[in-house]
Queue: 3 jobs
Job 1
Amino acid sequence: MGKPGGGRAEISPRLLSQFHAINYTIPSEQNMNKIFYTIALTKFQSFFEEVKSQCEPLAQATINIFNQMIENFLPTPAKSHYVFNMRDISKVFQGMYKAEKDYYESKE
């Protein structure tokens, strides 16, 4: 929410008192790597060893791409949708959770 003006209405203090302000800082790259490595390892623990060994490089590569996107795709007035957060990384891992052991025998 922004300050009132430019089409934004003032929110009454009575309504505002019903909400909580929550703020969090983006975790460090090391913490993000640990979070997503653990998620991948949990999913792939029943897979073949060759597939399981790719959990850490996969988490690190996803975080590296995320960091490059933040640096290279800056929001502009024409492209204001270029706002990235950890939800974008989690979407990658949600897609990986659809993988089934029967279809993956090697890391390729």
Job 2
Amino acid sequence: MAYATQPPRRVTSGGRRTGILIAATMTTGLTAGVFADWSNAVMPGLRGVDDRTFVTAFQALDASITSPLFLGVGYLGALLFTALSAALHRRADQRPVLRWIVAALVCYLAVYVITFGVHEPLNETLRAAGTPVGDADFATARAHLDEAMWTAWNTVRTVAATLAFGCLTWALVIHRRLGR
């Protein structure tokens, strides 16, 4: 039985817009989930442990989260996909979608400002502590992190990332309505 071969489908600009918007939404949602995990599970779980356990665990978690997979695909990918999605939705007939994408981009830029203005400097103090040896060194390293400030700003970062995810989700709804 012979099958007719069809030429490969060409990706249309509408298909490209849809795909990039979906990628922006997914990567932003994944990143918001990571921040929410830190707010709801990691930091509360570490709060009650001794200084040695806190510093050792936090340093290990920090090293694993700064992996190329999270930073490249999730964290940076969300920003790039959202910016690209905004660029692809600039046409007049796409403006209702663009408004929500821009709102998401603003929220996600707040995530970057918080990360590099608050979290990275605090994390660096713990990285700079190296491997403490005595109880006093662990207590000093933990105090330099400023857990209360780190946690409070992570909650703000989580809310901003979640709002960005919500805006992108709504942009998808509007995008779908416009496509009908």
Job 3
Amino acid sequence: MVATTTRPRSPARLPRFDRVERALHWANAVLFAVLMGTAAILYVGSLSALVGRRELVRHIHVIAGLVLPVPILAALAGRWRRSLWVDFRRLNRWDDDDRRWLRSFGRDPFVRLGKFNPGQKLNAAFTAGAIVVMLGTGSIMHWFHYFPVDWRTGATFVHDWLAIALFVVITGHVGSALADPDALLGMVRGWVPARWARERRPRWHDELSDSE
């Protein structure tokens, strides 16, 4: 009798983000939504007149800004940080495929991407830096009496223009997520279809297959 071996059937879906990563993402999403909404009310005259209670809106904006780093620190504080820390390293690692993807504006069919595409890596780096800068400039604007006039003027300029840049970047991020429902599943339910991973993130798909 000849023994036969069969390869295990490939799973229909693959784990992409754990609960900690998803909780961090949605906590940041809520805080950014509050910050962008309150900023719009504070800076757009018609919205400010419609909503009223400008001082309350300003306090909400300040509190949301001060709380913004808290979810990141909480996610990194315990043993549950392992997957998040691994993904942070992935976001900071660039290779030849990433550079080819950028040069071709994502149109090179032979690029084999890992878990994150270069656009996501740039977005993560920009957002992380923006959080630090916005926290610093916002603190100068709020506790202005501790700082000289030129610091306050510079902080206001940087804060306002960086807020506009963040609005554009976040709007683009949301649009990209809505345009790719399979990828969005990764941040909503924690998994993506294996088919999507093979087509859109082949190197990451192979990494998961090799680890099984």
